[in-house]
Amino acid sequence: MTKNHKSVRWRRIFGCNLLFLMFTLPLTAQDLLVSGKVTDGQLPISGANVLIKNTKKGVVSNFDGRYSITAKATDTLQISYLGYTTVTIPIQNRTTINVTLQEDATALGEVQINAGYYTTTDREKTGSISRITAKEIETQPINNPLAAMQGHLSGVNIVQSTGVPGGGYSIEIRGKNFINGSTNPLFIVNGVPYGSQSLEAPDVSAGINGSLVSPLNAIDPNSIESIEVLKDADATAIYGSRGANGVVLITTKKGKQGKTIVNTNMSTSLGQVTGFRKLMNTQQYLEIRKEAIINDGFGAFLENPNFDFIWPDLKSWSQTRYTDWQKNLIGGTAIRNNFRLSVSGGKENTQFLTGATHLKETTVFPGDSNYKKTSINNAINHQSANQRFTLVSTASFTFEDNQLPSADFTVLANTLEPNAPKLFDNNGNLNWENGTWANPLARLKRQYNALINTLMANMTVSYSLMDNLEFKSNFGFNNYDLESYIIFPSSALNPNDGVDSSFSSLTTNKGQRKSWIIEPQLNWEQQWKNIRANILIGSTFQKETSTQSVQRARGFPNNQLILNPSAASSLEALQNSYSEYKYMAYFGRINLNYQSKYFINLTGRRDGSSRFGPNKQFGNFGAVGAAWCFSKEALFNENTWLSFGKIRGSYGTTGSDNIGDYRFLGTYSTTGFDYNGTSVLEPTGVFNPNFRWETNKKIELGFEFGLFKDRILINTSWYRNRSSNQLIGVPLAATTGFNSLVSNFEATVENTGFEMEFSAVKIINKNLQWTTTFNFTQAKNKLLKFPDLKSSTFSNKYIIGQPLTIVHLYHALGVNPDTGLYQFEDYNDDGNISAEDRQWIVDFAPKFYGGLGNIFSYKNLSMEFFFQFKKQKAYNSLASGASAGLRENGSVNLINRWQQTGDMAPIQRATFGRYPGAGLGGQNQSMSNAAVSDGSFIRLRNVLLSYKVPKHMPSDLDFTVYVQGQNILTITGLDVADPEQTSNAILPPLRQLTLGVQLSF
Question: H helices within 390-516, ranges in order?
């Protein structure tokens, strides 16, 4: 009995041990689920990278700082976050590992920078690359990615063309390189080239937005992860001819491993013009008007009732009425509502992000005009279980609907007579005051509408053939469709003119641009003892087609049929074009890294373009960049204040084929007219197969250093770009039947400059942190040579040794105290003031520009503000009107006019255009140096105050409220509404105040 009892007991013990081994041995061999929380000792850190060391496997901490990852018991975790020291922790069979990171101002070697075909870091880059991220972009209530870059990047000058919704921007990276051609850089969105040229037609929208409808509006700023700008030869030469004006890389957000997260962002913005011009009131206006008529010898007609129709502002309109037309026509409040929803997440091998944004924005004009945009974007990342195969796919679709008046109200707001009649009569109809004025609200009947569809898609697949050899191919497709029209119904005309719908017209524009690209690549990387080598070879195949059709229909049975061209009595084809562009290239890169101290980067590209004739279609471009990280030398190892130091330099060539399609061919086009029933063709281009690539040679020297564990970072650059083989349209005599001949000239344009970028992080304590950023650019442009310039048709436009941005003006000598007329210097001493006397040179390019930003954060409260500054010349109010006495309002400065012999006044005698020499003198004064002033400014471009509501209970909900301000304050001595938009006919950028909430769960 005892023996049996012992036998049973041992069998039980053996069975338990067997079961224990059965369950524990597999667990030892299999992965553990490790979880924990990443903090800074007090607050959770969201977005920290938790990586299994020596692998590509990793996760990102969530908004509570929590993470979970599967790993082996023998693995080591590597946890990093920008601004903190990287920590490595062995797992050692633990399933819970909490991590505390120590603050370390920056981590230059950790942050990956997109350089196009490859990635690099601040420590290892040999080229000049500036960058902003979602952190800076999300703090601005904007509709266009270019708006987010204004003032933030050295060497990048961006100016908004209009405050009208859906308008465009101009951008220059390190100046104007070519005499002819666009200054636009190459835009790359997720690896796919994206055309930035507007497809709008001047016949349709010249009056409302200058035909500058930016295709970049289709890119939702909320979906952008980062924007990198490549500037020097080392960074741009791998793009060959396409990188001559620089490269802008836009990368959108992707999904991250972790639980599914829903993000919402809702905001409402109120926008108004930043300021009004100081115009004359009714009393001042009428006084000068009457004086002008008397001065011109027509005073007797003022008392004659038979001439009331000539000067209604003086004869029939109220002499006491005053209307502030700026307040009435551009003084409204634009309301922008923006809603963004995104869902992201995924597991170890597959991550996703899907988002949608809807925006609606009204205008400051009268009426119910509005701009609407809906964007949908999707991103999928997938990696195979063995981590050899990777797929990254992004797609976005954007629909824009822009409904605006046919013309900008700004010019009327600045020029309408202050005693003009009321807008509506007693019955609520438009008041035409017996046909004595054109009611400005009639413009609301002349509608402009643009419908834009944009599809962008790309897919990148890669496969690791070996541990150090990867094949990758990029596929992309873009489709941009724009359909717009402008209607001009007869009801928008003065009914006293007796017109009907037979005078109504419809002008339509249909433009489309399609492109596809395929880029196969091989990337080989090898690490020896002290040397790491990376070799990239690849090729590009691209095709782009563009079509545009502009038509005008006139004469309709009634205005209800005005949108139906088939109902018109006549239909005219203003433009009908089709162009095809083909491009191919081979490119390569060799990068050598020795002991993480010495870096060499060699890039090259052979381009082929269909825009050149036979034997001229291919061009070779390349660059070399080198860097020495001297802070790695033994001399500095014990240094307590210098944590990073690097000297870098680059030299190389890029090119340009930015001349349009088919320019080397002899081309013809239809005129739209018939001759005896036969369609007429006219020559439009001269055959010239000999012109070749424009070339831009770039050289740069840079010095970068970090102080006090990189809490202070300074990056300085000096550059010189010389562009030659300029492709110029040389004007031809009318007898040849052609306007110009495109050919290469041995003209050389030079751009030089100095750039500096500065950042500092001051961590006062665990709760309070202060970050400062500063950038500065000083740039010079110069025409070095232009053979036979004085005998060419460009002799009155360019001067050797001067910038391309100069303007020839008259030299104003003030007002003659005896005659009361403007005086100008007669340079050629012929006794007359003519165009040949416009020899006063003014350069409107900025002398220097930059930005200063500060971020203060205290616990859950954060405040940011960013200033933009620029030193420049700009037109003052005289450029919009230098004559007093015309039938239009003007600057209040016009009251300082000459009135009698001996007066010393800045404004000439009042005239309504009949006094000999006065009218021409006023025009010349508007084109003289007197119309130019110091246009420098300091602008508070962006302010943000945000508060993250603390969590009072365990929850995954993050709730943040914020207030944003855009274009809040501008300090300038210029007497116009905006120093960057000085025309009195264009609406300047608006001041915006935004209230928003952000939810994440």
Answer: 410-415
- Give domain limits for the chain: 2-110, 137-281+322-805+844-872+935-1000
The structure tokens listed for 950 are 């603390």
Phi, psi (degrees; rounded to nearest 5) at 920: -65, -35
User: In residues, how long is the chain?
Assistant: 1001
Per CATH, which fold does 2-110 belong to? Answer: Immunoglobulin-like (2.60.40)
Residue 82: is its pLDDT beyond 70?
Answer: no
Give start and end residues of each alpha helix (H) in 100-259.
134-137, 145-149, 202-209, 233-236
What's the gap between Cα 72 and its chain centre?
A: 47
50 forms bridges with which residues in the sheet?
59, 79
CA distances, 61 to each of 464, 600, 957 (Å): 28, 36, 15
**Rounded Cα–Cα distance for residues 874 and 972 (Å):** 11
Question: Quick one: what percent of the chain has pLDDT higher than 70?
Answer: 90
Please give the single-letter amino acid code of residue 361: E
If residue 594 lies in a helix (H) or strand (E), which one and from where to where?
Answer: strand 570-594
**941-950 pLDDT, tens digit each:** 999 999 988 8
Predicted confidence (pLDDT) per residue in 207-230, tens digit: 999 888 999 999 999 999 999 999
pLDDT recorded at residue 5: 44
- The alpha-helical segments, DSSP class H, found in 788-916 are none
User: CA angle at residue 126 from 124 to 127, to 5 degrees?
Assistant: 125
Residue 966: per-residue pLDDT:
94
Of 780-794, 862-876, 931-945, 962-976, give the lowest mean pLDDT range: 780-794
- pLDDT score of 576: 87
Q: The domain 137-281+322-805+844-872+935-1000 is classified under which CATH number: 2.40.170.20, 3.90.226.10, 2.40.30.170, 3.40.50.720?
A: 2.40.170.20
Residues 6+ apart with CB under 8 A from 635: none
Over residues 453-461, mean pLDDT: 96
- The three-state DSSP-derived secondary structure of 340-393 is EEEEEEECCCEEEEEEEEEEEEECCCCCCCEEEEEEEEEEEEEECCCCCEEEEE
Q: How many CB atoms lie within 10 A of CB 731?
A: 13
